Amino acid sequence: MAYAYDDQNIFAKILRGEIPNNTVLETEHTLAFRDIAPKAPDHVLVIPKGPYVCFDHFCNDASAEEIVDFARAAGQVCKMLGCEPGHGGEGFRAITNAGEDGVQEVPHYHLHILAGRPMGPMLLMR
Ligand code: 5GP
Description:
alpha+beta; HIT family, subunit A; 28% helix; globular
């Protein structure tokens, strides 16, 4: 079944300019901006401009142009943050949450890039 995209989600409003954001990078198909409640010294969200709900939706339905643009923009953000491991930076964590089990809050696909401190274990076990 196709994903239904809710165009009233907060990132859709950011993309339409209805809500301000702290932009790090903007390209033809991608926007990167600082998370409003950062979980690390650097916490940037990279989002496609297209109406994709989550990671698998984007991977399956976005055009090759959108996917390449998104990947290059995410790589550029790592460069801009100076966190590339082995290239002067100390590394980072890139996370995407999807759906209920992934505990996704905002139903517009986004990649979290977290840097500036050791991130600890990948997941809390419970
Ligand atoms: P999720 O849980 O969906 O993976 O992550 C959603 C992220 O969006 C959270 O880290 C949250 O802090 C961030 N967020 C929610 N509302 C806003 C907003 O209005 N502006 C910005 N910049 N980030 C937001």
